[in-house]
Amino acid sequence: MRILPLARAHLGTMAVLAVLTLSACLLVAGLPRLVQGSFDDALRESLRGAGASQVDLTVRVAANSREDDLIERAQFDSRDAEYRALLPGPLRPLVVPAGASTGHASAKTYDTPVRGSGGMRFVNLAWLSDADRRVRWIDGRAPGAPSTMAYEQATIPVFEVGVVDEARAKMGLRLGDVAIIGESHPAAVRIVGVFAATDPADRYWSHHGDVLRVTETQPPGKLDPERRTTALISDSGLAKLSGADRNLRYGWVLPVDPEAFSSLGTSEIATAITVFDRGVALRSVSVSTRTWLETHLPELLTAFSAAMATARTVMFLVLGGLLAVALGVIVLSVHLLTDRMDHSLALARARGGSLRQVAGAGTALTTCAVAPAALAGYALSFLIPGPVTWIVHAGPALVVVTAAGFAAARLALTHRAPLHERRDDVVTTRPSARRITLEALVVVLALAGAYLLRSRGLTAEGAGDDPFLLFVPIALTVAAALITIRCYPYPLRLLVRLAARRRPAVPFLGLTRAARARSGSVLPVLILLPALGVSVFASVISGGIADTQRLASWQNAGAPIRLTSAVELPPDAVERVRRVPGVELVVPAQTAQVQLGYGGERADAIAVDLDGWRRVLAGAPISVPAMPGVPSGVPALVSPELRGRGTIDVGWLRRAKVTERGVVSSVPGFFSGKPFLVLPFEVNERPSVNALLIKGDADPAAVLKASGSPRATVTTQAAELASIEGGPLTTTVRSVLLVTTIALAAYALVAVVVTLVIGAAERARALSFLRTLGLSDRQAQRLTVLEVLPMILITAVVGLALGLGLPAALGPGVDLSSYAGGVAVGEFDLDLVTPAFLAAGLAFAAVLGAYVHTAISRRRALGATLRVGELT
Amino acid sequence: MNPTLSELEAQASVERAAFGGDAHIVCDNLVRIYKTEGVEVVALQGLDLLIQRGELVAIVGASGSGKSTLLNVLSGLDVPTAGVARVAGMDLLAMTAKDRLRYRREVVGFIWQQTARNLLPYLTARENVELPMKLAGKARRGRALELLDLLGVGHSAGHGPAELSGGEQQRVAIAVALANSPQLILADEPTGELDSETSAQVFDALRKANRELGVTVVIVTHDPLVSEQVDRTIGIRDGRTSSETLRREDAEGRLVAEEYAVLDRVGRLQLPRDFMNALEMERRVRLELESDHIGVWPAREEPSHEQ
């Protein structure tokens, strides 16, 4: 059969099909890219934030004997190349070439004491392959070649070294000083230069924090801290540095580029790192040396995957729902197209068309509409940024295959026999016992799955997707659809009985027609239900995220504006802040680390007027508890860690005995997790204010200026919220949820309209018949609405319930904290406005569609309508 | 004399000539039962029919008498429930799907009552005629135009159905039916939607096909006037053939129509309803065999009933 004339005859339907396919393919191929892209951004951001020493791959060699010593730069370079050659495939694209980024080699001693310091001062020696570009010499000169000197009847090497500026002040090192280092194999260091980092903020320095800063630790039982610095030596100094003499470690940093990471291959990378670790360990030259890999990359990746797993599941659940609904709507329009072609194909079949010819022509026509549109949607999706995953290719292919497959199957079934005696008007036969058993099984499985998911929670260690979490919502949706399809005629029949007793004929007729469960009504239910379910679910989730983000921002800030200062704020500074325009209320607070009892135990403490703070927080989603009064002494609220101690002796500016009067889990804006105390503001006789809780919409910069404190910081709730909302994940997730909700609503609408159009001919005939019996136009409209509305209303209610129930059913399985600034999205408030609006809008659109439909069909002549399609 | 065993055996082994012999269309005791939702409708109740090659036959009957069912069976669109249906030697009950397709492509062509149902609205007349040829995979150049010319609608070959009158549409439909040179054309009320003048044109076209192409034509109608246009009219009542009207020229060249009742193979006969009503025949009749006919008499009133 020729396709072209057939296509011309059904241009309208084909256009609808093409538009639906285009939009579906664009969404199905585009949204996963967007989501995946944001996952990648989040991973990169977390890696960038982690510090180079955690992310980079560092090969370390502990050299213990002279034969292992590397005495010149070339040896380091060849080792570097050797290690790079060992890199497994998945790691190669991630590792930056030698010499770029933070990549370098180093030789460092550790625990090298200065003789005569009593083990309280250490000057370690370090050689950095790229020292010349990493540091600049601010005093003296760069170290040169080592020399020798006599010391205690022996000749010892003298290393020329440079020290960091901070070491001059803290360790009393001066230019020209010579110190003897090492206990068993002494050597001398001569300080010839003082350096500072060219760029102290460079990620590079996370590898060598000890070079830039003097490390101070407080050994137990000592008054003074123990101080360590690491001094730089020259290339020629390397020759004298031996692992036999002191604790020496060589290091090769193979820097990885956070930008090269993709959230998809994290487990592969973790495996590759293990392989690399093993490969490196086998390179140990001798028994005395040990080679190993140092990196925290696997831990970082695992932590990221765990945080992302549920979030990803929820996203793909929503996208899966979208795909299912889009496929449903496309199938519905293919249904419409094949219905429209029915006459042509039936004639062709009767005139000697084989089943293959007839079904082939219809399928080809469907493919003509679907394939170019799918291709266009697929192409358009490449305008959306984000990595290409398999679903980007599979989605559009699935759409085309489904549409063509459905067309082929439906046409083959319809035209199996050349003359098809169809009795659409007959009520479907009683369902077989087998079918009822199957449906009951699906329902039971879905409920059991939901119960198990709730009682089990998430697989905590599972870094990948939780298939169970994906299965349960799908099963629940299918179960709800089955129950709806099976049960919706029953309440209607009850209504029909009531309507039959009343005088008006229209409700009776309309409801009777609605209660006849025709085969055509199954598909719309299967589309509308997930569409509403998923869009309501999406809006509930997105509402929950928004609420939690607000909550998290308040938790982080503690007040509309919070000013904290490292030094005390004098009363006049507080007064100046009070006078800043926009400031409504200022509540001063004191924070410090206080001593508990008389031992070494310490805890954070805040002394604040809780009533005043509550006034600051008026209208916010968080609050602080009131301070209960005590007959005598100082009341205190304590963290769970300090619970049950009764009276605690607290050493702050003065010692006070405080009485535990309650337990709080966190202090918004200040503490959570660690032990802390909340005390009345008056706990210190002379308050030492170092924090201000400010209500009002004052300019944070003005507040900061007014405080006059050089070491103060201002945090505002608005800025916190903006930073949480601005995260790459959060923005994408919210926009994906929004796009999905809109798309689903649109698809639901299209489904209703297409359903109306599919039933148009039959309905027109019935209405024309009734109009010959005296049905008025108004009655005809009401009849149509009554016929369509019950199915839509019931589906809308079930869909609404499903969408609202899903978050509760999934319960602990859904952890969206990564979208909400780390705070778990715990309670999904039943905010019924948006979902109800969705459902009501859909019902309204359906009613409108029904009215428009009757208005159009009214224009047809009665006689013509009654004859159209009349068989035999 | 009693036959010997061998004589009986020989008698049994002799193949009896099949009913209808080599007739073009043979229906013997044809039954078609529709079942929907447990309700059975017997549309054909043991129908017998014989039509010879090249005949132009009308089948008439009231609405619901089963004539359309018969036509669907004969056109290979429907399968009878029981009985024998043979067209051009092909058994319609035993055909595979493939045979059925070949049958529809090569043996039979048909025309429906609704003019709109016969033609695809978006194809021109010529394209509509070419469609069955293309479906059968043997398109012949020029044949469509030949057929349209033959049926007097050659001028509208390039027009779509919407631009044709009802009569023209039906004539194009006849051309479509003839496209693959079938041996048989079935027409279901081809003039049902047409006025008498246009009907005549359509009948002319059908007759032309019958005479010039030698095609057997079976027309189903409930219009008794049609019978004037054909050689033989078969009446169907309640799913069985009940009467036949033959038209032939008498010695003076006038057309004479004679109506016969149909006697089936087991000797059943349907008496016309008005005959029965006129003589108040009910339940039983008396038959008397005369030398050249059988007399049918109303049952005598039996005195025993009076008592």
Automatic annotation (TrEMBL), chain A:
It is found in: Cell membrane. Residues 742-845 form the ABC3 transporter permease C-terminal domain. The chain crosses the membrane at residues 314-337, 358-384, 390-413, 436-453, 468-488, 522-546, 736-761, 788-812, 832-852. It is a multi-pass membrane protein. GO terms for cellular component: plasma membrane. InterPro entries: ABC3_permease_C. Keywords: Cell membrane, Membrane, Transmembrane, Transmembrane helix. Its main location: membrane. This is ABC3 transporter permease C-terminal domain-containing protein. It comes from Nonomuraea cavernae.
Automatic annotation (TrEMBL), chain B:
This is ABC transporter ATP-binding protein. CDD domains: ABC_MJ0796_LolCDE_FtsE. The lineage of its organism: Bacteria, Bacillati, Actinomycetota, Actinomycetes, Streptosporangiales. GO terms for cellular component: membrane protein complex; plasma membrane. Transmembrane segments: none annotated. Gene3D superfamilies: P-loop containing nucleotide triphosphate hydrolases (3.40.50.300). Pfam families: ABC_tran. The keyword Nucleotide-binding applies. It comes from the Bacteria. Residues 25-263 form the ABC transporter domain. Keywords: ATP-binding, Nucleotide-binding, Transport. One of its GO terms (molecular function) is ATP binding. InterPro entries: AAA+_ATPase (IPR003593), ABC_transporter-like_ATP-bd (IPR003439), ABC_transporter-like_CS (IPR017871), ABC_transpr_LolD-like (IPR015854), MacB-like_ATP-bd (IPR017911), P-loop_NTPase (IPR027417). PROSITE patterns: ABC_TRANSPORTER_1, ABC_TRANSPORTER_2. The keyword Transport applies. SMART domains: AAA. SUPFAM superfamilies: P-loop containing nucleoside triphosphate hydrolases.
